[in-house]
Design brief:
This protein is an alpha/beta fold. It is built from five helices and five strands, in the order E-H-E-E-H-H-H-E-E-H. Strand 1 (about 15-20), helix 1 and strand 2 (about 45) form a beta-alpha-beta unit.
């Protein structure tokens, strides 16, 4: 007998969940979004550049810059490829919380959309309540600032 999947399949007619990353701690946002994706929801994340990482500004920038040095010496163009855009950085953070190598995780990641800014065409009434995950404290840096340090040239 085949095992029933715990994931509910949502038809395309159901509205996706909208998550605004503005001043929200990226890790907390990612865990909530990953949970919704694994439950079968379609999720749209807007304002990815305004997501916040907590910690010392200079050490976070240094950590991300050190990751850029990880490569293969024989064929560096083959990878590993490191994201530099804030939407791709946030997508990678979310991917770390999903079993993306398995079929369930692959399908979940296909239900995710991450945008820099807020595109005009998004119309949804369902929103994730992320107010309890907003940044608290002084030692924070926006994902957009890290992306600019890594070479992103968008949204000036």
């Amino acid at each position: 007998m085949a095992k029933q999947s715990a994931v509910k399949e949502t038809p395309e007619s159901v509205e996706p969940l909208l998550a605004d990353a503005n001043n929200t701690v990226a890790g907390r946002l990612a865990s909530v979004v990953a949970k919704e994706l694994l439950q079968g929801e379609h999720v749209i994340v807007i304002n990815a550049e305004k997501a916040v990482l907590s910690g010392d500004r200079s050490s976070l920038i240094l950590e991300y810059k050190e990751r850029l040095g990880i490569r293969t010496l024989t064929a560096p163009w083959k990878g590993p490829l490191h994201p530099r855009h804030p939407d791709r950085l946030l997508r990678r953070i979310i991917r770390g919380m999903v079993p993306w190598k398995k079929d369930r995780g692959r399908k979940a990641m296909k239900r995710l959309r991450v945008y820099v800014g807020a595109p005009e065409g998004i119309k949804t009434k369902r929103q994730l309540d992320l107010s309890e995950y907003e940044r608290k404290g002084r030692r924070t840096i926006y994902l957009g600032e890290i992306a600019r340090e890594l070479g992103w040239k968008g949204l000036t």
